[in-house]
Amino acid sequence: MSKAVIVGGGAAGMMAAVIAAEKGHRVTLMEKNEKLGKKLFITGKGRCNITNDCEKEALFNSVVSNPKFMYSAFNAFSNKDTISFFETLGLRTKTERGMRVFPASDKSSDVIKVLEKRIRSLGAEVLLNTSVTDILIKDGVCTGVKTGDGEIFADKVIIATGGKSYPLTGSTGDGYIFAKKAGHKVTEIRPGLAPLKIKEDYPARMQGLSLRNVSVSFFDKDNKKIYEDFGELLFTHFGVSGPVILSGESILVKKLAKEEMRLTIDFKPALDEKKLDARLIRELEESPKRRFKSVLGALLPASAVPVFIDILKTDPQKRSCEISVKTRKDTVKLLKNFSLTVTGTGGFDEAIITQGGVDIKEIDPKTMESKLCKNLFFIGEVLDVDALTGGFNLQTAWSGACVCAKNI
Predict the structure, then answer these.
(1) Across 354-360, average pLDDT
(2) Domain at 3-190+355-407: CATH code
(3) Cα–Cα distance list, 15 to 44, 119, 405 (Å)
(4) How far is it, in rounded angstroms, from Cα 217 to Cα 244?
(5) 6 contacts 13 by C-beta, under 8 angstroms
(6) Would you say 136 and 57 are in contact if contact means Cβ atoms under 8 Å apart?
(7) Span(s) in the chain for CATH 3.50.50.60
(8) pTM for this structure?
């Protein structure tokens, strides 16, 4: 059997180590950090959204960049296979809203533990605090890697170094350097699934506020609606985040780099303007002496009330019976179309994933082997493949790693 060196002990690297070792290969897993799965530990806010239990069509549709490249990998190791795989390792899972799958314990550390336990039980070698500085290539064949301690020869070398997001976890772009040495093209690198920066100070004033069921719409400079979504949104100190924002950013990232956009939030998507107006009339008429800020408080979270008051330019102490028809109509419009100016995205420090990477045209999708350099493989975030939020990016890592390890 082959000796396989895997560079990077993240999600893709650990999965590849398990599958390769199960097939009887001699595996050495190298990780520059002091422990495995450092980035995996913080995914899903520390809960680790391991996959999404959606139907196959939705899984394919979740991939934003180069979806066709993932067809073979998804067919070889699907999201359903991922759930079964982890359950077999002893990790109980649960499925939440949006078909997002988490460990039942809500602890990402449990995901890492079962993977590491399986790797070690199979006799694979794990080298921590080991930085790979170069890959060895001779006559178009990858023959091993170079570390600070010298050269290590191998029959197969699998690069699973991740991208550039969250660099403190070790994702510093090493894989791109290795790829270029092997003659590969690396497409433009951008922060992916990153929060959005907003021109107005409204988000900062509502910082920490999470809205559960809202509709969002993005409009370009010509005021044309180019994306819409429904779900959770979070206000931050500089802008907005949350699943609906991250998914929008992932799809619109190239456009966001070139121009400002308008983002509108519908705080009451279950009601059209007519029904919402009727409800507001009811609120005003039932308590005619009630202060306007209290009326808004019945419709909005507390931290949003002062912002709405300022935009509406209305005295918060005004009584319900003193509110004009115009103010009432303006309130309804604001609830349905709260408008913000998007000026850009957060950087790699805040991005969940990296968009761009090793050009997939130069990688065999059935094996993840380089078409330019024999015995060299690329898996995970280092490739120019990314997906929507909701467990889909980890699924691309699991699937790519599995199809690679099965075919070395």
Answers:
(1) 96
(2) 3.50.50.60
(3) 19, 9, 8
(4) 10
(5) yes
(6) no
(7) 3-190+355-407
(8) 0.88
